[in-house]
Amino acid sequence: MTGDRITLTGVRGFGYHGVFPDERRDGQEFVVDVTIRIDLRPAAASDDVADTVHYGELAEQIVADIAGPPVDLIETLAARIADGVLDRLGVIAVTVTVHKPSAPITVPFGDVAVTIERERSAS
pLDDT tens for residues 56-79? Predict the structure, then answer.
């Protein structure tokens, strides 16, 4: 199994996710980190972006997922993003971290985040 990875960190998008009515009404910024496991040997040999995952397009997909239909939990948002990444050709596995820096927490905090890992099914 290959150890090759592509990582995007700090992808920012605006969404309306959360369990509270004001989160759904006002929205907030979400920050996403994604690491995909992929065999990069074909791209390295060909020097052709068609043989890899285009990270600019991946970032745009992540922002579209953030801006997509509202969900209550960032766990659900992370799963949505992971599913979209796994649909890309050649992706073996993905790790997604969704940060909610403006979460409605009543005490001082630096960050709240959920991280999930998913692998392509063997089917």
Answer: 999 999 999 999 999 999 999 999
